[in-house]
Amino acid sequence: MKFQYAFILGNHPVISQAEIIALLPHAHILCSTNETLFIELSTDLPSDFLNGLGGTIKIARIESETKMINNQIFELILNKREEKQHTRNHKKREKIQIRKIDFGISWYGSKNRKLALRNGLEFKKYLKSKGIKSRLVTSQGKTLSSVVVEKNHLVSDGIEFIIIENGHDFYSGYTIAIQNFESYSLRDYGRPARDDRSGMLPPKVAQMLINLTGTDKNRILLDPFCGSGTILQEALLLGYEKIIGADKDIVAIENTKKNLVWLSTHFLPSYKQTHSDTQKESHRVKAIMPELIESPIENLNKYIKGASVHCIVFEGFLGSPNITYRQLPGTVAELTALYKSTFHICAQLLVANGIIACALPAWRFHNTFTFLPMNTLLPKNLQLQNRVNQTPRKSFIYARPMQTVCREIFILKKRAYATDGIVSPCNRRKMNAEDSIAIITKKDKTSNSDAAVW
After folding, report:
1. Helix or strand (DSSP H, E) at 104
2. Quick one: pLDDT band at residue 448, thresholds 50, 70, 90?
3. How far apart are CA 381 and CA 361, in angstroms?
4. Is the pLDDT of residue 246 over 90?
5. How far apart are CA 227 and CA 221, in angstroms?
6. Among 39, 75, 110, 167, which residue's CB has the most CB atoms within a 10 Å radius?
7. Please, are residues 112 and 141 in contact by the beta-carbon 8 Å criterion?
8. pLDDT grade for 100, boundaries at 50, 70 and 90
């Protein structure tokens, strides 16, 4: 049996598609547009799959492929949806009698903003002719936002019809999941320790970075620039169990602890069920806290055993958010030195075939991007990975309109059997994945400026 789904993508659809493909490598891609990705699977998606996707707004189950859309198509989809709900609720499979329904229509792929409204009104009249009361949920555009769908309970109690126009074909179905916008907002703005100076990585972007690695959740994940702990919190929520965070700033480490303790009481069910609010904070920290290290990136190999980490995910220092064009050469030179050292250490810590997903700064002035010179930053055993629809630099750009300091996202892989500059070629050995975090307890003791333009 085959299952067809449409993923409604966020504001950075290229990154969203790459994230989905990384998590569903065996999916058959049927088609894609600037707004959607249409795939076929041999197994049904888990009901909570969308909770682990940072770049997808909705997921729809596709039930029909036709050359036109009419009331009979809407009725067919409605009946199939009702049948699945009855089966899921273990009710008798008798003839379905719909007496009242709230519904909305989102139409993707067409520039005609009135198509959804016109078809919605026609279907409402059709339902009335059959004695079925209905309420049509509308918005200003041709699609309903996840906020509108949630506030009107269209997934749980009504239905949102999804129409995807692709050339002369129409794929139609209904929404089965929407992004939990309230949860993302709380994880971003509701944390007790939110430091604007240490970066403003949104939880959605952190989730996408982690997912782009495609790493199994029983492997070891490291964030060497953990800041206030956004990547660490999202890794915990995604189910990673072996997590290391590091930062040179003790304030950042303390903020991470506060935020992860807060996370445990709001978002981790297992903690809520087994811990009372009256327990001491030390017990709370021990229950969920990843290994945290106060150290600059260049000294991390004093704390973490070489070739022991399976994936490294980070957003490093992006420089001043108020940078001027005159300051750009100096900033590029400074960050080039920082990230050259960063990737050298990362290569030492990664196992063979280990993955890095990272966000580095890119600067936009006068509609032209300036990038860090990646060819001078990477040691020979780290290779940039190809993904669909990347830039010529094998990267993704994450940027808002008119934003000066943007993010350039890379995925890198450590070559198997490659030397990292410390192990000599004659003593080269296979770096096997280890199942435990190897932390060294020893105490910490305390360029090229040419930029690529695209």
Report:
1. strand 100-108
2. very low
3. 22
4. yes
5. 15
6. 39
7. no
8. confident
For the segment(s) 194-453, the CATH number from 3.40.50.300, 3.40.50.150, 3.40.50.1580, 3.30.43.10 is 3.40.50.150
What's the CATH fold of domain 3-179? VC0802-like (3.30.2130)
State whether the Cα torsion 170-173-174-176 is positive or negative: negative
Q: Are 56 and 22 in contact (CB under 8 A)?
A: no
**pLDDT tens readout for residues 259-312:** 999 998 888 764 444 334 444 444 445 556 899 999 999 999 999 999 999 999
**Tokens at residue 98, please?**
């719909």
| Structural contact between residues 319 and 331, judged by C-beta atoms closer than 8 angstroms | yes
Q: CB–CB of 8/54 below 8 Å?
A: no
Q: How far is residue 413 from each of residues 42, 194, 339, measured CA to CA in Å?
A: 29, 32, 16
CA-closest candidate to residue 316, choices 453, 198, 449: 198
Longest dimension (CA), the chain: 82
Contact 158, 127 (CB under 8 A): no
Q: Is the pLDDT of residue 445 over 50?
A: no
User: Hey, what amino acid is at 191?
Assistant: R
Q: Which helix (H) or strand (E) holds 233?
A: helix 230-238
**Domain locations along the chain:** 3-179, 194-453
Q: Which stretches of 314-392 are DSSP H helices?
A: 328-349, 374-377
Q: Tokens at residue 216, please?
A: 């199994």
- Closest by alpha carbon to 120, among 140, 98, 135? 135
> Residues with Cβ < 8 Å from 306, sequence gap 6 or more?
348, 349, 420, 422
